[in-house]
């Protein structure tokens, strides 16, 4: 049967008397698109990722938001210094401040991102095994664009909670007492924004989020797909790469994409911060933040 299939997929000419009979090759079959498994896998992967690396994300947010004083003074001197001071002042669970927002919204965010990438790759397919690089980049960029409907409010709320400890520490250093420093929660922030600015209040920094996420996905998805294609395949005949190959491909692609868009991430974080410490600068937009 396999031999017959190969024969029927090729062009074969048979001459019978004076008649030439030609079979054209079967058109390349585009793989079926299964979105539900991608959505489930993306959600599970997102929750595991948040649980593992959230303290590092909190440190990143605080380092990005801190501003250097006129004499070069700063609250945190390095990543490890920020880890140490946060752990000492706020305890172990303080390192996970804001994680509930991420765990709640990371499932739809990652599900949308991964499912959208597969969806656009499927519809941009030319029928060949390897999608052209420009189409891979387009599919990734469109996936990054789709996710910002969830990413923007998620990041906005998460950043306020992650940076609250830094702002409170600076307020105490300026002479304020703990009683005068308001406590914040994701619910109170969201309700206040909706009350004062409507639902659009949750989408502060959308343009900067789009700049970061679209750029990240343009780099990440094509790079991951091409690195993953270089590795050995599973022995079950599925054609999928072995686990270690996919893992390393994801690490390399993710690191490369994150380094590429880090300036955009800093700008986004600073634009979305609602409550700044005393004396810290405010920004009027992406260009102003870069300047």
UniProtKB/TrEMBL annotation:
Gene3D superfamilies hit by this protein: Mitochondrial carrier domain
Residue ranges of Solcar repeats: 33-123, 131-230, 241-291
Subcellular location: Mitochondrion inner membrane
GO cellular component terms attached to this protein's record: mitochondrial inner membrane
Keyword Zinc-finger: no
Record membrane topology: Multi-pass membrane protein
InterPro entries to which the protein is assigned, alphabetical: MCP (IPR002067), MCP_dom_sf (IPR023395), MCP_transmembrane (IPR018108), Mito_Solute_Carrier (IPR051028)
Domain of life: Eukaryota
Broad class of the protein's primary localization: mitochondrion
UniProt cross-references to Pfam families, sorted A to Z: Mito_carr
GO BP terms, alphabetized: malate-aspartate shuttle
GO MF, any single term: L-glutamate transmembrane transporter activity
Keyword terms of this UniProt record: Membrane, Mitochondrion, Mitochondrion inner membrane, Phosphoprotein, Repeat, Symport, Transmembrane, Transmembrane helix, Transport
Catalytic activity: L-glutamate(in) + H(+)(in) = L-glutamate(out) + H(+)(out)
Protein family (similarity comment): Belongs to the mitochondrial carrier (TC 2.A.29) family.
Task performed by this protein: Responsible for the transport of glutamate from the cytosol into the mitochondrial matrix with the concomitant import of a proton (symport system).
Protein name: Mitochondrial glutamate carrier 2
């Amino acid at each position: 049967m396999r031999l017959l299939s190969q024969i029927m997929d090729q062009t074969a000419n048979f001459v019978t008397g004076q008649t030439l009979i030609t079979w054209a090759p079967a058109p390349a079959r585009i793989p079926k698109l299964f979105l539900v498994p991608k959505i489930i896998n993306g959600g599970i992967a997102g929750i595991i990722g948040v649980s593992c690396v959230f303290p590092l994300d909190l440190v990143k947010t605080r380092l990005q938001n801190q501003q250097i004083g006129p004499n070069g003074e700063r609250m945190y001197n390095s990543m490890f210094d920020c880890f140490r001071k946060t752990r000492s002042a706020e305890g172990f669970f303080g390192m996970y401040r804001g994680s509930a927002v991420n765990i709640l919204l990371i499932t739809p965010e990652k599900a949308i991102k991964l499912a959208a990438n597969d969806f656009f790759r499927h519809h941009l397919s030319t029928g060949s095994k390897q999608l052209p690089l420009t189409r891979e980049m387009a599919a990734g960029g469109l996936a990054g664009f789709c996710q910002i409907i969830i990413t923007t409010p998620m990041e906005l709320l998460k950043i306020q909670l992650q940076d609250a400890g830094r702002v409170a520490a600076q307020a105490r250093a300026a002479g304020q007492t703990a009683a005068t420093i308001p406590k914040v929660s994701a619910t109170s922030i969201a309700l206040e924004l909706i009350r004062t600015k409507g639902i659009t209040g949750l989408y502060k920094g959308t343009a900067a989020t789009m700049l970061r996420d679209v750029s990240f996905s343009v780099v990440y998805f094509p790079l991951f797909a091409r690195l993953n294609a270089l590795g050995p395949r599973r022995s079950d005949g599925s054609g999928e790469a072995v686990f270690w190959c996919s893992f390393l491909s994801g690490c390399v692609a993710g690191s490369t994409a994150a380094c590429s868009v880090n300036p955009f991430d800093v700008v986004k974080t600073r634009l979305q911060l609602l409550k700044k410490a005393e004396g810290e600068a405010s920004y009027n937009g992406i260009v102003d933040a870069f300047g």
